[in-house]
Amino acid sequence: MLYVLYIHVKHGIIINIIGGLFMKKESKIAFTLAEVLITLGIIGVVAAMTIPSLIQSYKEKATVTAVKQSYSIFAQALKMVAQDYPNLQDLTDSNLSPKENSQIMFNEISKHIKKIKSCDIDNACMPSLYININDQPTEAWDKAGNIQTGVLANGTSFWILNLPQNDIENSTYSGQIGIDINGDKKPNKLGVDFFWFTFDIYGNLYAGIKPHNQATPAGEYNNCELGGSGLNIYNGYGCSEWIITHGNMDYLKRNVRKNPSK
């Protein structure tokens, strides 16, 4: 009986010891309210520092993808048009208005792209005013009323300008295509949501301006210069060349014409 009692007592001691150990362990993994608040504060500070840069990085990648996609769409469409018209100037008529000539090219390109609509009246598919990459206002891009606008199936708005040969200084230049990757939504800024392509009479599409002479060679990123004074109000039209070549938007962080290889 004493032996059994001894065991019971001994077991009771063991149980108490084990219970104490568990209690000690529980106290080690518990946090006070102050500790929780401090931890949450640190997490908040880190998030505030990193989330904006992550969002900006995501937006930049999305923009680069959209520009490259639109470039590919129109490059392929122009090649298809050029198969039927080896010289795109055959699609122009000097007796017609610039708007009518642009409508002709618009119709031909539309045969080879997926678009959801064209804007035949007041060009409401796109904003009328933009700012350049230095936040200077530009002139209304359709003040001459010579372009035709539409919307691609992916939501990108675009305009097409097609010029007769007698309106062109360079013999192989044929027209322009401007795109706004988010339609009429802001910021409506050159090099941010608006991008510009040009095409020649052979159906070749160029990001930015066609490198047709020594004054505008390829790789100079003409009209894509951050900062400085006395710059063209259309500064930003040429930034599509940088995106297609480099796959980023570093021109918004530094002057890529003065320091292109940083």
Give the structure's gist in a few sentences.
With 262 residues, this protein is α+β, with helices and mostly antiparallel strands. The chain has helices at 2-29, 33-84, 98-110, 239-246; strands spanning 115-119, 148-152, 157-162, 173-180, 194-200, 205-207.
Record the SSE blueprint.
Layout: H1 2-29, H2 33-84, H3 98-110, E1 115-119, E2 148-152, E3 157-162, E4 173-180, E5 194-200, E6 205-207, H4 239-246
Antiparallel strand pairs: 1-2, 2-3, 3-4, 4-5, 5-6
Features:
262 residues; six-stranded antiparallel β-sheet; elongated; disordered N terminus
Describe the overall structure.
The structure is a single chain. It is built from 4 helices and 6 strands. Residues 1-25 and 213-219 have low confidence and may be disordered. The radius of gyration is 31 Å and the shape is elongated. By secondary structure, it is α+β, with helices and mostly antiparallel strands. 39% of the residues lie in helices and 13% in strands. It has helices at 2-29, 33-84, 98-110, 239-246; strands at 115-119, 148-152, 157-162, 173-180, 194-200, 205-207. The protein has a 6-stranded antiparallel sheet with strand order 1-2-3-4-5-6. Strand 2 and strand 3 (157-162) form a beta hairpin.
